[in-house]
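Input record (one chain):
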Amino acid sequence: MHRRQFVSLAALAAPAFVRQALAQEAGLTAKTLTIGCSAATTGPLASSGLDIQRGTEAAMAQINARGGIHGRALQLLMMDDAYEPERTAANVRQMLAQGQVFALLSCFGTPNNQAILPLVEESGIPYVAPLSGAMSLRKGTRNVFHVRASYTDEIVRLVQRLTGMGLKGIAVVYQDNAYGREMLDDATRSLAAQGQKPALQVAVATDGKNLAGAVAQVAAARPAAVLLATAGTVSVGLVRGLRKSAPGVLLTGLSPTLPSDSLRQLGEDGSGIALSMVVPDPHRAKLQLVRDYQSAMRAQGHQEFTPGSLEAYVNTRVLAEGLERTGRDPLQVRLNAALAAIRNLNLGGFMVDYSGQTPFVGSRYLDLGVLGSAGRFV
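The corresponding structure, as predicted from the sequence alone:
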């Protein structure tokens, strides 16, 4: 308490550059280092937020069991935003204003990250792994470190696979928000590169209020394949509706299209859907990374392995590597420099390399998988 009072008084009296240095100790004590995250743990994408929490906490517990970061235990401050950008901004604004966190990690959603990016840029706080692959977020920002491959890369791979199969007449069903509209633009460009254009473009509200009409439009058009640029519970309704109204149509989607609870809800209806993957299959323990992840999850009592929690685990490991390199007396500016300097980091079969150039994007990992009846890739 006395130290906190001293720092607060000193900050008020000090010149601007000293106040900035003192502020960089936010979220830091002699024994702990607090990391902030805003994501949906309620609402239509609640399972995505829960995956983030489980994967992050599993990684932190594993790191802390080995002594933490230079003797400090990592801890997570996670705030629910229900996938509402205004709440995401309010959460991050509170974390910054109250000096609660040393860095940000894995905030979820394209419109949500668009809402907080100005706050992140202005504050200079290190931000690792925005959970969005939107190219609109990948600017020359010196304190933002993306991990996953981009949505554009995912779209290009999916379109190349579909057109390579000789399919023509590919419809795009997209979420009617910043995420979905950007994916529609990417899909349109990718199809044009293959000499095609979308056979149909259908917008679906995030809350699914126009779901029946969207399904009817696709069924009437009878496309050869449907690319789902959607996320969360609305994807479940689309898949079920299309299975009934347009049987035989090939369904494909991006990595956020079907989070873990959506796969459970779909059951047999999910079988045969092709999805892009930005992390390895969390059930196949061929890679050391996946074995480490599974061990960490089991240690926390979690027997369910998901791409979302594996991605959060990876993101936490990347942040921890930067913190280790920062040293025993961490400052946010030092963490930014340490992360930017990461080259050829092997997390056990998963490579991360920032190459010192903005926009910082660490991973190019990308694969395609087809779901089986149990909601796992086959």
